[in-house]
Amino acid sequence: MKPFGGELAAEYPTIRLLDSGRSSLRLILKNSKPGQTILVPEYLCPIISEICQQYQLIIRYYPIGDDFSIDFSALDFTECDWFYWIHYFGFFPTDLPISQLSQVAVIHDCVFSPFVPPQLQQSTIWYAFTSVRKIMPVAEGSLLLSNQMLSTIPAAVNQFAAIKWQGLEQKAAYRNMSTLN
Fold first, then answer.
1. What is the pTM of this model?
2. CA distances from 41 to 18, 49, 60, 90, 105 (A)
3. Burial of 58 (0-12, 13-18, 19+ CB in 10 A)
């Protein structure tokens, strides 16, 4: 009999619950080096490019089809160190080039899914995160999974998160007051 709980920990070597997708991306990119190249889709939230620039990565944009598909045959993975892939609206490509992706570190932005596709787990280095607020009725949060060890979160970030959490609790208490009266 297996004990209840810990299923995610058994499947993924690294799990972090952070305050936002931005924080997850920053924690991932702590493993990058200035001057490395990252392929990112043309259709993305601008903060992604800004964070990549903060880590001094060279950004190369790749096109996304009208149906949110990626033409993997048009991408040259030998000229990049990182591949940023957004899982748009639950769309998962059937032609994911696993052998080519095993040459680069893959960041999977699982916008609407907390699970890592089994095909991606065949890559040598992968990171996957989701914005929990987009799939659950919560104000914020990000679940980060990886087969790589990640650095610890600095105490200053934890202090900021604690203050932010206090604010969310106060907001919830205020909102609940109106429903009690």
1. 0.76
2. 24, 10, 8, 16, 15
3. middle
Q: 25 and 49 in contact (C-beta within 8 Å)?
A: no
Contact (CB, 8 A) for 128 and 116: yes
DSSP the chain: -PPSS-HHHHH-SEEEEES-HHHHHHHHHTT--TT-EEEEESSS-HHHHHHHHHTTPEEEEE---TTS---GGG--GGG-SEEEEE-GGG---TT--HHHHTTSEEEEE-TT-SS--TTGGGSSEEEEEEEGGGTSSSS--EEEEESS--PPPPHHHHHHHHHHHHHHHHHHHHHHHHHH-
Backbone angles phi, psi at 38, to 5 degrees: -125, 130
Please state, as a whole number, how many other Cβ atoms lie within 10 Å of the Cβ of residue 51: 18
Q: How many residues does the chain have?
A: 181
On the CB side of 91, how many CA atoms lie within 13 Å of its CA? 13
Give the amino acid at 67: D
Per-10-residue mean pLDDT, the chain, length 181: 45 74 91 95 92 97 88 88 85 73 87 71 82 69 82 59 70 66 52
Parallel/antiparallel/unpaired status of strands 37-41 and 14-18: unpaired
